[in-house]
Amino acid sequence: MAASEKDGTGSGRRPSHGDHTARRGRGGRAPKPGKHSAAWAMRSAAEQLKELLGRAPESVSAIKPTEEGWEADVEVLELERVPETSSVLGTYHVTLDEDGDLLAYERIRRYTRGQIDRRH
User: Fold this and answer.
1) β-pair partners for 104
2) In this structure, what DSSP letter does residue 105 have?
3) DSSP assignment of 48-103, as one string?
4) Stated pTM of the model
5) How high is the pLDDT of residue 20?
6) What pLDDT score does 7 carry?
7) Which residues contact 111 (CB under 8 A, 6 or more apart)?
């Protein structure tokens, strides 16, 4: 079987990361370009930040679509201590393009796990 028949592109090349025809969403449907879910963006932000920092994110505390893609705030355990409430976490602001590729990140906050934000 020819490569173009295997990958369904008709071009004889393997689908790249950005080929929407190669990825299937729920129900076997291909996602619409630029129309990804917030859950997809959260996973993308967390996975790429983990690759860059070498530490697994604990959670995504904020996510919002932008005209260029997505912005997310990701919580990462930076220093594990005993007791656990004294462990240090960081909040990273992450910017993704519409394909889910990380464009930028910045640590915007550092805090202990036991710390509670006060309302003003």
Assistant:
1) 95
2) E
3) HHHHHHSS-EEEEEEEEE-SSEEEEEEEEEEE--SSGGG-EEEEEEEEEETTS-EE
4) 0.69
5) 37
6) 42
7) 88, 89, 90, 91
